[in-house]
Every structure is written in structure tokens, then in C-alpha cells.
Amino acid sequence: MQDMNHFDAPRVGILPAGERNRISDVAGVRVGHTTLEQGDIQTGVTAIHPHNGDIFLEKAPAAVTIINGFGKSIGLVQLRELGVIETPIALTNTFSVGEIATAQLKLATAAHTEIGRSWPTLNPLVLECHDGYLNDIQAFAVRQSHYEQAVASAGADFAQGAVGAGRGMSCFRLKGGIGSASRLAVWEDGARHTVGALVLANFGRLPSLVVGGVPVGRMLASEQAAPQASGMLAEQDKGSIIIVLATDASLDTRQLGRLSRRAAAGLARTGSFYGHGSGDIALAFSTAYRIPFQADAAMPSVTTLHETRMDALFEATAEATEQAIINALWAAITVSGRDGHIRTAIHELLPDWREVLAQQSAKG
């Protein structure tokens, strides 16, 4: 079985990556998983901490882009209105959104007993994809305790692939799941900032898959190398992807919204066209400053990045998103789940992927 902490995947783009090539290359960002993997239950939850402090008392500036709105997430309305995150970002399956939102409320009110009393209420933030092909989603297997475990286990080094919320996810009708990457934006004056991406990849038609400009999906579909390949040409692009972006660049909410929109460029490079039934959401936050909860606390004096310098961050966002999707595919292992359904890992179908990509790239 492949080690989901250590895997080889195609390298896309031209920008340098951070030390870990994960979203956690943005200092303070941590990720934790709880994975449920037994028989028909193939699901889980993933939690992303935007910084090391108390996220309710020190909110993170953020913005969200709805690329295609076929989704059931919670918390996006207030996020769009106020431009802040005040809980860890939770990822899970579609039917577990309510359970995880309740878990977020309970953890927050245990830490701050005046939430919802003399203090304002809390805005839970839970994003989802539908994993019902591999997972018996009607079993409602994800519990509040699983979210608590994911939050408690979060760290800078975390597994990718068929773990956490990604356990039951499919991508291009192959095994998908959690993927992460980072890219450095570097300016001529020597300034640099990091953009990290984490995706919950659960979208796409097999023939549409493109890896580094090579139409890998068409090759697999034409050879019918995977059991899922038959009939894929006629299938819709239905599924979802959640893209979470972190940066240490000082950006306001409007600029973070601009950044989040560029995730769509990286998503498109892999072969997605944001189909009718695909819920595609990109959320971006900055760790450069924090917004205090208390009204009498001093607001941060923030100097934001000049608009003319945003292009470097846009490029880093597109590359990090594309790489995170590729990493989700290559980190995944083959999973058998509900009613014997199987999603096959791409590295099993293309064990010679290095030679294939090199040959196709040489053909131009």
C-alpha cells in the first residue's frame, strides 16, 4: 500500500514550491484528519486551522468565490458579508454538514461560554463534497467526536489522498481526495510570499483529465485501462471540488476575493469545465494579520499589497491549485466501498507515468 505521507507525483508549473509543498508552508496553518474506513463506510472529516491562535477571538480575513454553486456548504453567506473566518475550516461529506457545524458550535461555546448569550453567535464553516459512490452516505457515520479528533490532531505535516474528508471521494472517475501544494510568488525587488492550496477533489470526467498539458484521461479512456472508463465520454461533469487557499501576503477581503477567483484557472488546467452538477468553491484567507473579536480592541494597522503586484500571487494560486489536484490523485490509494464499488488509484493504472508524460510532452 502506498504511503500517503510520501508519494511521487508529476510536477506542474514553473514556480518554486515551499519546503513541504503543502498549504502549511504558510506559517501557522495546520491540517488534521479523521478517517472512517470500514466496509461500506468510507468517509471522514478534515479540519484546517488558519493560524495558531484562538480563531474566534482573532478572526482571519477571508473571501470566497462560488465557481459553480451546486453545493450544500454552511457559513458562506456571513463569510461573504463580513469577510472573516471564526472557526477552523471543516471539510466532510454532504450529509455530515449539520453534524460538523454542531461540533464547531459546541467546541467554541465550551471555550467561550458567552457565545450566543452576551456575545454574538458563531458562524460555523463547513464545506462538503458528495462521496456516496464509495461511502454509504445514508449511514450518517461522521460524528461530532470525529471533528474534535481532526481538530486535535492538526499539524503542519499531514497525509494526502484517501484520508479524512477525502476518503470516499472520486476525481475524474479515479480515486480522488485530499491534495495540497504551495508556490512562492517572487518579485524583482526580492520580496516573496507563499500561496498554499488544499483541495477536496471529487469532480471530473475521465476523458477530460489533463496532467501538465498531457491528455492523460483520453489515453486511459481509449485504452479502457480502468473499469470506470467505459461510457465516460457521455457522462456529465458532476461532483465537486473545495479549494482552500492560504497566503502570508497582506491582502484585504476584496483582494482575497480576487485571489480566490484565480483558483478556477488551476482547476481548468486539469480538465474541469465546472459542469452543471459540480459544486466548485474556492475560499482564500490571509495570515498576515487578524481581526479582533472585542470591539474595544485595537484594529490592526494594515498595509496591503499594491494591486499592480497581485499578478505574482495570481500565478502562484493557479499553479498551487493545479498541483494540489494532481497530488490528490497521485497520493490516493485504490478504495473499495459501498456495494463493492471501486475507485482505482491513477498510479496503479499508469505505473510508467513518467515515461508517458515525457513522451507526450516531447511530441509537443
Automatic annotation (TrEMBL):
InterPro entries: ArgJ-like_dom_sf (IPR016117), Peptidase_S58_DmpA (IPR005321)
A Gene Ontology molecular function term of the record: aminopeptidase activity
SUPFAM superfamilies: DmpA/ArgJ-like
Domain of life, source organism: Bacteria
UniProt record similarity statement: Belongs to the peptidase S58 family.
Family annotation (PANTHER family): BLR5678 PROTEIN, D-AMINOPEPTIDASE
Name of the protein in its database record: P1 family peptidase
